Each structure stands twice: as structure tokens, then as C-alpha cells.
């Protein structure tokens, strides 16, 4: 029995680029074959439970603006109603995946025993919903940043009791993810960082965080969870400085604590911008090290200095992101989740559906542009030409040589190189041919 929340909204279909309907796909055709695979299987879209169903429309300067039948989110009856609504939208959009934090799907009871009980209850309920649906769990995670107990961090908290509560919470969330057939488990620190060094022992906190993540990996193998363990970088907000600052920082951290073969990255566009990077930069760093797991596809408002988590609407940005993902072979266990939210003035159910339609269309446009660039080969050819000097035996032997031998060669061969153009404008024009 339908809830009536999406009354008047039918299943969204692909109508093509000329469609004038606000509730139709113009570019996302799940069955379209691109580079030998269905578009749905390439992009692996996932609705984020938190911003789509748990966020109430507040911001740092004002309270909730949304009125939903499952608010306030403080009992299990409304948690089940929220799940019903979520699966109705998955069906409307034809979504293959969803993802959640524990605090999104069940009310926080204030103590671990009751949190565990309600999590297990809603996990069983969601499992029943999944049996009659075509939507799977891309990943689960624990919210260890919203409740006041986490104000000084979770695994990095100076209080060992908070560390213990965090460990128990993550165990319960991995169990729930495993039970629902989740394909990944994500850890996002949120408050794994510091406000001031006056009261922070960085070395101790990093060691505790490293041991915590090793415990997660050990438990994954103990229970036979086949999904990937992912960590999500973010530079700041809410903490002044977070230990998982960006992709490169996380990769260094994983190597320090012996986790480079066990854990990969879940990268978010908005977090890349806060770190002073582009999204394709973060993806390229991860793929260069074989550590790309999944992506959170959103954007920030470039006139705002904080993480606004809006739906994507910039085709060139999206195209360059998918270009590097496709060059890496595409997603395996990961996918494209919409860690994005409608604006607090967009209060109708139709706005929520339309936002996902637009995000999926932008991703499809960018993805097809990326695939076309790869098939054309122009970027590969330009890179090969720029680095072609390294193909010579003399250049390769230099990498096995010494400073003295190289210095002798420069003198003997009268090496005095002239600069060569990077041809950036030509390559930017090339990209614009496809987007």
C-alpha cells in the first residue's frame, strides 16, 4: 500500500534530450550500452538515506523547513514509515542502490543496548523491503559525529569509553551492512581531528585511529564480509583540521598502519573543494595508487565556504571525474551515491524526485562524454607525446643511475634543454568538444 507522499508522481522513464517534462530522464538511459556495458551497471547510482529522508531542511542559521509525515524521527513507527517512503522513491527512480548511516534509519536511543536493538529491528524491516525490490545496499556506515558523545571524536577521543562505544557502534553497523548484502562499508571520521593543539596529542590520536581501523578489517574477515572497507577524506568542518584531510593524506595514513591492501577511498566532490582540490585531482590521486573505491557525487556552492552538499549540475566537472574512473577500469564494488540534498526552500516531494533526476542526467551526460574521450584517444595521445622522451633507453637508464653519472652525461652531451609547451588551452578545447 502506497503512502501517498509521492501522489501523482509516476515511475520516471527515459524520454530523450528533447523531452520537456520536468519528471523524465533526458540523458540517463539505464539500458544504453556504453563501452560494452549498460549505463546502470557503469554508474551504479545510490540514494543517500540521510540527505534525502533524514535531513529536515535546517542550516546553521535556521531550523527545519521540511514537513514530512515521518517527523519527528524519534520512534520506530516513523522509522519504518521513512523506510516505506524511501523504497517508494527507489521504485519511482529505478534506483539500483541506496546507502545509510545508522542514525538515519533508526532513532538514537541514547545508549548502546537500545541503539543495537532498534538497529537490528530496522535492519530486518529494510531486509523485508529489499526482498520485493530491485534496490540493493551500496554501503552502510555509522554516524559518529552528530551526538554530543562524539564532540571530541570517536576513535580519536581522549576518553577510552567513547572509543569503546565507537567500536561497538561500528561492529553493529558492519553486522547490519553484512546482513543486508552491502557491497561496501564506509568510515567517515567527521570529528576525527582537532579544534586546537592546546589539548590534543596528535600522535596518540593517530595511533588509536590506526588501531581502530585495523580492528574493523579484522572483524570484516572474521565474519566473512566480502565488501570493501572504505574511508572518506574531508579536510575540515566540523573539526578545524581532520586527520583524513584528502586522498593523499589518507593513503599515507593507510600505509603507515599497514592497511593499504585492505582499505580504499570513498571520495566526495564537496570535500575535494574544501581541501583546495578539484574532484578529478582526488580521483586521479586515488587511481594512481590503486585505491579508488567509490564516490559521493555532489557539489558545493562556490560562493560559500562550507560543505553545502548540492546535487551535481556541472557537466564538465562530472565528465573529468568519470574520465579518470573509466581509465581506472570503472567501479568494482563502489558506485555513485548522491551525498547531496535539495535546498531548504524546495519543500515538495516533487523537488526531491526532480533533484535526483537532474543529478542522474548530469552524471549520464558527463559519463558519456568521458567514454567518448577515451574512445577518441586524444587525451592519451597528448600525454604519450608529452612524456615520449622517457621512452628512450638513455632516459630509462637514468632512473637507475646516480647523480654523478647524470652530471657527467649532461657535461659530455652538452644537454641544455629548451622549455616545451604544455598545450593546456588545446587540451581544454579538446575536452569542450565532448561536453
Q: List low-confidence stretches.
A: none
Q: Strand order within the widest sheet?
A: 3-4-5-6-8-10-11-12
CATH fourth-tier homologous superfamily of the largest domain: Divalent-metal-dependent TIM barrel enzymes
Task: Please bin the fraction of helical residues.
Answer: 40-55%
By CATH reckoning, the class of the largest domain would read Alpha Beta
Count the helices. How many? Answer: 16
Q: Give the overall shape.
A: globular
Strand content: 5-15%
In CATH, the topology of the largest domain is named: TIM Barrel
Rg to the nearest angstrom?
A: 24 Å
Per CATH, which architecture of the largest domain?
A: Alpha-Beta Barrel
Average pLDDT number:
96
Largest sheet, in brief, is:
8 strands, parallel, barrel
EC number: 5.3.1.5
Enzyme class: isomerase
Binding site for Mg(2+) 1: 232, 268, 296, 339
Cofactor: Mg(2+)
